[in-house]
Amino acid sequence: MKIPATRLLAAASLLAIPHTATAAVLFTDNYDVNSGSFTTPPDSNGVGPNHDIATPGRQGGTLATPTLGYTFQGNAQVGNTTTLAANSSAGSALGDDVLLAFGASVTINYNFATIGTPLVITFDALPNAQANMTDWFSFLVSENAGTQFVNNNTVDFGMLFRANGGTEIFVDGNNVPGAAPGTFVGQNTWDDYMIILSDAAGTGSAFGTGTSRLDYYQNGAYLGTANVSDPFTAGQGYIGFGGAALAGIDNVQISSIPEPTTIATLGSLAGLALLRRRK
Prior knowledge:
Elements: H1 5-15, E1 24-29, E2 59-60, E3 70-78, E4 98-108, E5 119-126, E6 136-142, E7 155-162, E8 167-171, E9 174-176, E10 191-198, E11 213-218, E12 221-227, E13 238-243, E14 246-256, H2 263-278
Antiparallel strand pairs: 1-2, 1-14, 3-4, 4-13, 4-14, 5-10, 5-14, 6-7, 6-13, 7-8, 8-9, 10-11, 11-12
Helix pairs in contact: 1-2
């Protein structure tokens, strides 16, 4: 598949950085489902983003066996073919994604803090399927796999990305000023995002080391760094996503980077991961 020139240029700038570490892919999920597998909002039997969790080939990485599940809140769906645009640049058809509708969230049921190294999280996201450019999706790091929202005090860190390019950071449910802006996305558009979690030096784990840092990227371009004022503990490594109105998440990949390394190295390796996902 052809890679857009903007992504090639961004990745090339990352690849120019020398590196020696090797990324280990822990978990991937492309959310691809069979045609017509639309699911209504989660019911008492847990039907929701897990309804097709065992679809062969959907998940990958060293943690994919046994298949990891999700905890969800609200109207979270996999297989909805009527609401979000197809993620065509990544080869994903209609419905091959997670739809987060009107305050919904999903959290992977695994504590990634146990990995003990810096983490790189890459994913595709669609902030809104409506005309309101202030709508957003959020990236979440929390202390449990329960239902989450970006301003809940049980969410240790949350960052939202708006369709108009605005960003906001939340620590322990409280808004923290100073988030670096992204770029304008527009309605029903998929973009690439990358989050790097590490300690403040950028060389070790973000969890249980006394300092925590988050570097964030959009379409391969570095946006900013957040030094988390309440550092993550060893029990706070649950990763998830939320939505405001109608948002989508696709092609999640979580990788570990062996220590010691640096943020420059992490960016280089993540650029490689982005190219592999987009081929």
